[in-house]
Amino acid sequence: MSTLRRTVLATCGLVMFGALGSARADEDKALTHARELLKTTILVDGHNDLPWAIRTDKKAPSDVAAYDLNGTVPGDTDLKRLRQGGMGAQFWSVYVPGEVGSGYARMQLEQIDIARRVIERYPELKFATTVADIRAAHKEGRIASLLGMEGGHAIENSLGALRAYYDLGVRYMTLTHNVNLDWADSAAKPPEHGGLTPFGEQVVLEMNRIGMLVDLSHVSDDTMDDALRVSKAPVIFSHSSARAICDVPRNVPDSILKRLPANGGVVMVTFVAAFTDPAIAKIQVPAMMEASRRAQGKSEEESQKIFKEIMGGLKLPKTSIAMVANHIEHIRKVAGVKHIGLGGDYDGNEDWPVGLEDVSGYPLLFAELIRRGWSDADLKLLAGENALRALGQAEDVARQLNKQ
Length: 404
Fold this sequence. Notes:
This protein is α/β, with parallel strands linked by helices. It is built from 15 helices and nine strands. The chain has one domain (about 25-404): Alpha-Beta Barrel (TIM Barrel), CATH 3.20.20. It is globular, with a radius of gyration of 22 Å.
């Protein structure tokens, strides 16, 4: 090899190494920036299914002590990874499957009990029901812990039950899950009512009166439309993404996004691969629908078995953090930066973008947005200030309605 050729190759190598080193340095700088930002703002996540993971744990089902969050757990959530993720406030989902067809109230109380015992067990967590509670917990360096019901089937057509769940600490209710109710249509089933029935409208108004957020993840487009028309307080989507990016019924269409500024609502973007990436959605969403269909009317144990059999055998491609960022940016473009948040849906699914496989990954998402030019002010709105504002407005509306 000639001296000239060695010189050229060496120079090219230095240039390539320099470019890679620069890119790595930029990446580290963005990630460092993200971690520092999350130390000074409250990161609010709208949906985590840890109570369900504990209920269905193979080794010790429903045993809160055995599912030790101080150690290594089989799921996506433990205290170490929550801290790594910068979590400031978490809505713990007290999910009950609608497919079982009966026994909802008992299961709902058991799920609330699991969540409350988890929160009481760990000093790092602090039970919260108001914005003031959340801000106080953050000042103490603790993770504010709120409850969110997933599926209005659990009220069993009773406003009294709804009020009782509120008294137990529930601060949002997803109107439907994967089944239609007597009073509301789900995104997962053919419509029966064309949205909300008159009683469904009463449910929304009663939620407004007591200060419980109306959650529109999982509901049909007509139910979204009716809830926005009826609600006097901001609505949320606790774990949904943009349908324009990934065309599945679970995501929010632009026609609804455009109405959020008038309502004050917030879409908390989910990380679930099937609702993030169209290539994965084509495979996984039909399987989800089939599992829900076959589980209809089965026992809790039989339903779990059906979902594991159908979903466990799927071969899925990988997706990226960039896809999640695309959803966030689309919602910002259509609805505005004041109407976006985050709702990972951890412990409720098994397929995630690379880098967002568990609750430790939030800084990586913020680093991606930093590299895209997002300001700290906008990142803080996304992180939690939008969700806190919506909850605060729901509290204000409840106070006003109860004065009338």
